[in-house]
Write a structure and sequence with these properties.
The protein has about 475 residues and is α/β, with parallel strands linked by helices. The protein has 3 domains: about 55 residues, no CATH class; about 240 residues, Type I PLP-dependent aspartate aminotransferase-like (Major domain) (Aspartate Aminotransferase, domain 2, 3-Layer(aba) Sandwich); about 130 residues, Aspartate Aminotransferase, domain 1 (Alpha-Beta Complex), CATH 3.90.1150. Helices cover about 35% and strands about 10% of the residues. The chain starts with 7 loop residues before the first helix and ends in a 10-residue tail after the last helix. The model has no long low-confidence stretch (mean pLDDT about 95). Bound molecules: pyridoxal-5'-phosphate. The site of pyridoxal-5'-phosphate (PLP) has 15 residues, from helix 6.
């Protein structure tokens, strides 16, 4: 056992400490605390030296994987490089020292940031105005769907309680719709991964509030029939909701507003860079077309004015790229994904051959090493083995359309050398699988932990030390 495998409580030695306070030299004595406020027992804190504490936390930080430690090709999550200048801007004392209840005349700079972001996002998306209240993509979805409901209710059109969601949709789409009290109607994808317009047609009617779409969809494919879909949905009285969580490939190329979408959210923390592992922080501003501006919420969906730090980072990112360079973010994210796809498709099954956008999906290994009586290596095994080489795993077993889905999103911010390194390792893993799948089945071999029971780890995580255990 390495010494830093120990919990800080296990490093504790009675009487050891990091600092001692000097004797009270001034003869000033504070009043004794009243007895009822005093502890009856000393707190059970670990007794360790300063260097123990520093090493403990530094070592803990290295047991984790982050975008600052390695390549993180997690599909549908856009884990990209976050320029440090964004952090500096967000940490400026003029911003961090603000109080949300300050008089308006003292926060004109902040208002200018919101207005500039509203303008920038309107230009990027082709919509009219945005609310910056929602603090995540899913939060934006809920806000946008509530807004759609409100639009129908305001016209006295109360029976529109159904929302159409493609079978390839991100899991938050049906979840947000359910939270909003909408009934979910699934529309199927065709074999080429695109929404099946023939399957959509019979679903449309006067009970449809709208459709939620991701474009490019979660398979990384551009929905080429979006014009036709928009026409059909609008003709039945429904609205189009755009899940713009990962807008990278579209930047400067295509705009949701021009495709016919009425409402959208955009994940600033994915598309415009903000460190967002582990569930936060985020910002999911919701934009609407002109005819829906009056339904934008002023308040209620979140406290005060949303997640300003994330909005600032996104603003810094947009300004840094500028109008002329924003489109390269889109182009490079698409180029990187296609380069990986083409470089690996002889070792990994590629169910959809067409050009992808910012991400794509493999469906397991071409040769998984299975033989008579020997089970082959799965997508989970590949993902676990990648950790040994210092790469975060891609998204696995999503979307649900494929049994061995391995969804890769390199983003626009990785160099060719980094991407080539990843391709080489993916090829090596494929060769290992073909030779002896059992080696992959026991991976990772070099990570701090091997394979936890992921359901228990997610549902009943043990986040606190219990001394008795
Ligand atoms: C990440 C993502 C979401 C959800 O965003 P959160 O900020 O995690 O709530 C929704 N849709 C798609 C396509 C996504 O990739």
């Amino acid at each position: 056992m390495k010494y830093y495998d120990k919990l800080i409580f296990e490093l504790s030695k009675p009487g050891r400490c990091g600092y001692t306070l000097p004797e009270n030299e001034y003869g000033i004595h504070l009043k004794e605390l009243p007895a009822e406020l005093k502890r009856s027992k000393a707190p059970e804190l670990p007794e360790v030296s300063e260097v123990d504490v520093v090493r403990h936390y530094t070592n803990l930080s290295q047991m984790n994987f982050g975008v600052d430690t390695g390549f993180y090709p997690l599909g549908s999550c856009t884990m990209k490089y976050n320029p440090k200048i964004n952090e500096e801007v967000a940490a400026m004392p003029g911003f961090t020292g603000l109080h949300p209840l300050q008089p308006e005349k003292t926060v004109q700079g902040v208002k200018a940031v919101y207005e500039a972001m509203d303008k920038a996002l309107a230009e990027i998306t082709g919509l009219s105005h945005f609310t910056f209240l929602p603090c995540a993509g899913a939060h934006g979805e809920l806000t946008g769907l509530m807004l759609i409901r409100q639009y129908h209710m305001a016209r006295g059109d109360e029976k529109r309680t159904k929302i159409i969601v493609p079978d390839s949709a991100h899991g938050t789409n049906p979840a947000s719709a359910a939270v909003c009290g909408l009934e979910i109607v699934e529309v199927k994808s065709k074999a080429n991964g695109l929404v099946d317009v023939e399957d959509l047609k019979p679903l449309l009617g006067d009970d449809i509030a709208g459709i939620m779409m991701t474009n490019p969809n979660t398979l990384g494919l551009f929905e080429r029939e979006i014009g036709e879909i928009a026409k059909l949905v609008h003709a039945c009285g429904g609205l189009l909701y755009y899940d713009g969580a990962n807008m990278n490939p579209m930047l400067g190329m295509v705009r949701p507003g021009d495709m016919g979408f009425d409402v959208m959210h955009i994940n600033l923390h994915k598309t415009f860079s903000t460190p967002h592992g582990g569930g936060g922080p985020g910002a999911g501003p919701v934009g609407v077309a002109e005819h829906l501006v009056k339904f934008l919420p002023e308040t209620v969906v979140s406290g005060f004015h949303g997640n300003f730090g994330v909005i600032l980072r996104a603003y810094a990112y947009i300004l840094m790229l500028g109008r002329q360079n924003l489109k390269y973010a889109g182009m490079f994210s698409v180029l990187s994904a296609n380069y990986i796809k083409e470089s690996l498709k002889d070792c990994y099954k590629l169910p959809i051959q067409s050009v992808c956008k910012h991400e794509f999906v493999f469906d397991g290994l071409v040769n998984d090493g299975s033989k008579e009586g020997v089970e082959g290596a799965t997508t989970l095994d590949v993902a676990k083995r990648l950790l040994d080489f210092g790469y975060h795993a891609p998204t696995i077993y999503f979307p649900l359309l494929f049994h061995q889905a391995l969804m890769i999103e390199p983003t626009e911010t990785e160099s060719k050398e980094t991407i080539d390194g990843f391709i080489e390792v993916m090829r090596k893993i494929a060769a290992e699988a073909a030779e002896d799948p059992s080696f992959l089945k026991s991976a990772p071999h070099c990570a701090p932990i091997t394979r936890p029971d992921e359901t228990t780890a997610a549902r009943q995580p043990i986040l606190r030390y219990h001394k008795e255990i």
